[in-house]
């Protein structure tokens, strides 16, 4: 892994850092693959209960894809398709991660970085942060699943407004239309994000995994296969050691100690 994607761990929460501060953390073609790889590894790590995605410094979460690479990596239909597959692999890894994910956003969150933020379960942001999808300024059609998520978050009219105009939204508007879930002073963002996830990490991992699977099934379209998988997850949770621990802790009026099994 390059030094452009860093992984840090604080207790049970891992943080994935986009580390190109001199380029406002613009995401290179290689970084898309690394994001997918790192996310899939953390998804399998029993010591990790939640994942934060953030940019290095406070100027930008990420300014989007590194457009300086487009002449090489998007020079024709074949290379554009390969590039798109790399981007989608990162989005899919985050969307399908069974653990809670939060985009912690300082500064600019633009273009492909909006896709990363939307692939996360929640978006916590600093006052002064800014958002936009300039695809219409580049003659790019934004990815279908990412547009689906944008519509789910802000509704079809606002989604079309953002994509048609390629305008930049300020943090207050992003909060008002539902794109972000927390808006905090810049100095408070990190502490509040990790305090929230510490609380989440205390809860039963099997319950959280089941909730994430339900939301993903609704996003993808609730099929018979989804229903069978969700019934299985519910049954497994109901006979788990964590279910017994949760019941005992409730009766004994103490905090439960969940182990994810």
The count of strands amounts to 10
Euclidean distance between termini CA atoms: 31 Å
**Major sheet:** 6 strands, mixed
Strand content range: 15-25%
Q: Helical element count?
A: 11
Major beta sheet, strand line-up: 1-2-3-5-7-10
- CATH architecture descriptor text of the largest domain: Alpha-Beta Complex
Helix content: 40-55%
- Give the integer mean of the pLDDT values: 94
Could you tell me the CATH topology label of the largest domain.
2-enoyl-CoA Hydratase, Chain A, domain 1
CATH superfamily of the largest domain: 2-enoyl-CoA Hydratase, Chain A, domain 1
Q: Stretches where pLDDT falls below 50 for ≥5 residues?
A: none
Keywords:
261 residues; alpha/beta; 2-enoyl-CoA Hydratase, Chain A, domain 1; 2 domains; six-stranded mixed beta sheet; four-stranded mixed beta sheet; 10 strands; 51% helix
What this model shows, in words?
This protein is 51% helix and 16% strand. By secondary structure, it is of the alpha/beta class. The strands form 2 sheets. Strands 1-2-3-5-7-10 form a 6-stranded mixed β-sheet, with helices on both faces. The protein has a 4-stranded mixed β-sheet with strand order 4-6-8-9. Helix 1 packs parallel to helix 3 (77-95), helix 3 (77-95) packs parallel to helix 4 (112-119) and helix 9 (205-220) runs antiparallel to helix 10. The longest helix is centred in the N-terminal third of the chain and has 19 residues, at 77-95.
